[in-house]
User: Which sequence fits this backbone?
């Protein structure tokens, strides 16, 4: 008989883990990731890792302006994450946030150009918000309706809707080109600032924070305490249970995707009216995908999403900073953020499982 | 006859997490030329123990000896090297392959695949032990019992001489069970060692030579089958004296509650699942529904609950308690419309977590499933469901850390208590249950039987879809037998016999739809 030896490592599921221990594991993961990426930095670039980390921090929080840009970008990511939360909670794989953002962005930019001179900014902002909500909602309803009535695959459908939105954006950019031949829309209403988010307490981006944080709190309450939020949970858990309880899966699917698309559309509004004041095919810039990570990592808890959005934006800003400060190429910086993310995600494994070495008893 | 030891277990321990000890220092012996029944309630660790022999789990502590030599079984491959073959509850066959193709699948042999030689060897094995098997039949054309035969021949083909059968009779009719037992006796005579895991005590008495009992992960002991009886075995399993009688009061004041007429259902693939089914469920009685798995039980209950679309001409009339003159037609209504029509219908579906409950939510969240629409506000009211959750937890003794602990992480028995508790709390006029005690321990099963009888005495029409004929005969007042989607008979449970019901279960077998 040829038999294998006792396996060297075995995996056992933990039944429960105390909260402090879980956080200890997470903190250990972050520290470990800093050490490993420090080794990487030193091995590849011969730079002092501490200096590199300082530069990362500097890139994100080095000056008041940088702090506000970090906040602005984190809010943008959070807004999309909040929009994706109900869809993913329903287990509807909405990878179409990019398109939904662009649709909201096009609507905002179009109105800003068209009505900028004729309507006072507060009224214009309200109109733009509503229209961008509707535009995003439409982009969400289409794949949802197809899924509900003909059971199409929502991942492919939402993904392809992105390309339609990108093409529409290209068309609008060509249409609204300014100055001619630049192949960009340029900053809209630069002189009048009509339709731009107003400064609050002398801060350009405070309104972004207010809007997004309101949404985050509202979504938390909606998912947790409302009847509709309950229906989303049931449909996401089991469609059969939903049907058994008399919940119309069709209706919930379409309604939830309308909400999800609408909030992503509003993110487009915030991006255009509250940040860039222009529109291009890169207005969404991949954030529709990054926000999926935000939503899942936070397990759809919008307050945890705030933390994760900041972490991701911090890593991004830090990477840009070290790339320029130390003349590293972007890839080196990406490797570092990759290592840090890998450890943070990997720590979840050690929170759910533990390893047993050969010869060790499983009890302890 | 001299019985030699095939497997000896010494101090085998397996833990899941820190709190759950599935097997606690178990030492026992499996002998050649003997059929050993491994008996124990659900969660007592039978399957875990056998999974360690077949290489699925690895023991945390202890030693396994095969033919007196210590061995390490780290994978199913190792198990086969030791001659151990396990027949699982759920078959692992490729539907579009023939029996022979399935049997040779995964065997690494030199040279070309020779299916003819394989078929010859399969016939040889079948003739030796009395299996009925056609090596060239495709699995999708097979009945459950034929599929099981393929699984058994598969392990024999690989040279296993120690066979473990995990609840092999759960899916068989009484007649098929007898045939399986004959084959097992033939294999025993050939000197093979056999372990059978089963819940049905009369089968233990019938087929095994020795019974080993586990309770809560501990080895309680073994007895020769000829020296024991079902009552003694139950006491060993439960750990104290129990009564095995189901209280069955005579039905009184029976009135029609559910009149089903000409119910025909096609599934999404156009296969006829129910064929003009007609019957009446009376308030004040328990109507049992028997049949081989997949004979239309699921479709029948779901049709009443509004989850299936009936063909034209069907009618399901519902009469609430106290309003017997006012019949409500259920055909053509979806679950929400049925609820809005004021129909008090409780339904415990077969797939508890997949249909009846929301696994990620706690007891409170699950109580909410039936009542969350109450009130006009935008928000759910959690006070009442929370109160109900606490009541159910207390009255049915649900073991859970809190009413907010996700129900999917509770044990099967507790999951079922949550579901049954919620459904009964609706004060139903009709209560339908599908396999209400599947996977539950003896005590919980009796709790459920008592709850159903209690409902019956209140005047509720109870529909009980079951698989254990002994229980159906003891619990129900009448038994409706389904065969291939048709009603093959409705019998009086007090006077019928298991054989009669068993024959009705296969009455239309030849021309009837396959399961």
Assistant:
């Amino acid at each position: 008989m040829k038999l294998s030896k006792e396996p060297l490592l075995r995996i056992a599921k933990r039944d429960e883990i105390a909260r402090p221990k879980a956080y200890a594991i997470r903190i250990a993961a972050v520290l470990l990731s800093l050490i490993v990426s420090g080794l990487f930095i030193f091995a590849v670039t011969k730079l002092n890792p501490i200096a590199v980390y300082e530069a990362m921090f500097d890139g994100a929080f080095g000056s008041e302006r940088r702090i506000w840009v970090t906040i602005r970008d984190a809010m943008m990511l959070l807004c999309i994450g909040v929009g994706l939360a109900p869809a993913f909670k329903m287990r509807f794989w909405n990878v179409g946030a990019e398109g939904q953002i662009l649709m909201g962005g096009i609507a905002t930019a179009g109105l800003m150009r068209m009505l900028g001179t004729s309507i006072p900014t507060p009224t214009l902002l309200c109109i733009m918000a509503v229209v961008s909500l509707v535009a995003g909602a439409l982009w969400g309803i289409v794949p949802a309706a197809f899924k509900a009535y003909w059971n199409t695959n929502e991942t492919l459908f939402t993904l392809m809707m992105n390309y339609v939105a990108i093409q529409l954006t290209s068309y609008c950019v060509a249409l609204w080109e300014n100055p001619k031949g630049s192949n960009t829309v340029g900053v809209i209403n630069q002189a009048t600032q009509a339709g731009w988010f107003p400064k609050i307490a002398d801060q350009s981006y405070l309104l972004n924070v207010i809007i997004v944080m309101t949404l985050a709190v509202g979504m938390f309450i909606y998912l947790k305490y409302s009847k509709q939020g309950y229906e989303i949970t049931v449909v996401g858990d089991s469609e059969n249970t939903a049907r058994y309880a008399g919940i119309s899966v069709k209706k919930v699917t379409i309604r939830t995707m309308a909400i999800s698309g609408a909030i992503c559309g509003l993110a487009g509004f915030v991006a255009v009216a509250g940040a860039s004041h222009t529109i291009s095919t890169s207005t969404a810039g991949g954030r529709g995908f990054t926000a999926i990570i935000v939503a899942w990592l936070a397990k759809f808890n919008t307050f945890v999403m705030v933390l994760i959005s900041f972490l991701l934006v911090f890593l991004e800003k830090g990477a840009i900073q070290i790339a320029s400060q130390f003349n590293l190429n972007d890839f080196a910086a990406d490797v570092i953020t990759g290592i840090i993310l890998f450890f943070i995600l990997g720590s979840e494994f050690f929170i759910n499982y533990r390893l047993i070495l050969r010869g060790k008893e499983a009890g302890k | 006859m001299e019985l030699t030891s095939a497997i000896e277990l010494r101090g085998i321990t397996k833990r899941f997490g820190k709190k759950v000890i599935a097997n606690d220092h178990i030492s026992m012996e499996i002998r050649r030329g003997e059929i050993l029944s491994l008996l124990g309630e659900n969660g007592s660790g039978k399957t875990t123990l056998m999974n360690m022999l077949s290489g699925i789990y690895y023991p945390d502590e202890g030693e396994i000896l095969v033919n007196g030599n210590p061995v390490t079984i780290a994978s199913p491959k190792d198990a086969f090297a030791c001659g151990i073959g396990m027949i699982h509850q759920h078959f692992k066959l490729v539907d579009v392959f023939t029996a022979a193709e399935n049997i040779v699948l995964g065997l690494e042999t030199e040279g070309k695949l020779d299916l003819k030689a394989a078929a010859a060897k399969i016939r040889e094995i079948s003739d030796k032990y009395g299996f009925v098997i056609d090596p060239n039949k495709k699995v999708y054309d097979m009945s459950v019992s034929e599929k099981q035969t393929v699984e058994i021949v598969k392990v024999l083909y690989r040279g296993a001489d120690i066979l473990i059968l995990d609840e092999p009779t759960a899916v068989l009719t009484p007649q098929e069970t007898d045939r399986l037992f004959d084959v097992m006796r033939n294999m025993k005579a050939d000197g093979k060692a056999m372990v059978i895991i089963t819940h049905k005590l009369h089968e233990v008495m019938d087929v095994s030579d020795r019974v080993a009992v586990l309770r809560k992960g501990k080895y309680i002991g073994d007895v020769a089958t000829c020296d024991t009886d079902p009552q003694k075995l139950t006491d060993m399993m439960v750990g104290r004296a129990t009564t095995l009688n189901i209280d069955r009061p005579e039905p009184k004041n029976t009135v029609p509650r559910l009149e089903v007429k000409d119910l025909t259902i096609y599934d999404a693939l156009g296969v006829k699942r129910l064929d003009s089914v007609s019957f009446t469920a009376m308030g004040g009685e328990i109507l049992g529904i028997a049949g081989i798995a997949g004979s239309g039980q699921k479709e029948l209950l779901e049709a009443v609950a509004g989850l299936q679309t009936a063909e034209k001409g069907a009618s399901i009339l519902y009469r609430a308690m106290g309003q017997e003159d006012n019949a409500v037609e259920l055909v053509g209504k979806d679950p929400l419309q049925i609820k809005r029509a004021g129909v008090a219908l409780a339904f415990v579906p077969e797939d508890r977590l997949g249909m009846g409950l929301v696994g990620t939510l706690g007891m409170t969240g699950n109580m909410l499933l039936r009542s969350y629409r109450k009130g006009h506000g935008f928000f759910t009211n959690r006070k009442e469901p929370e109160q109900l959750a606490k009541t159910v937890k207390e009255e049915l003794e649900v073991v859970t850390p809190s009413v907010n602990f996700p129900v999917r992480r509770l044990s099967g028995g507790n999951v079922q208590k949550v579901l049954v508790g919620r459904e009964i709390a609706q004060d139903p006029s009709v209560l339908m249950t599908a396999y209400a005690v599947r996977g539950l321990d003896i005590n919980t099963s009796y709790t459920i039987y008592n709850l159903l009888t209690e409902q019956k005495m209140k005047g509720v029409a109870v529909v009980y879809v079951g698989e254990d004929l002994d229980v159906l005969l003891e619990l129900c007042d009448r038994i409706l037998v389904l065969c291939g989607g048709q009603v093959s008979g409705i019998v009086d449970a007090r006077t019928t016999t298991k054989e009669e019901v068993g024959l009705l279960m296969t009455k239309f077998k030849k021309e009837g739809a396959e399961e």
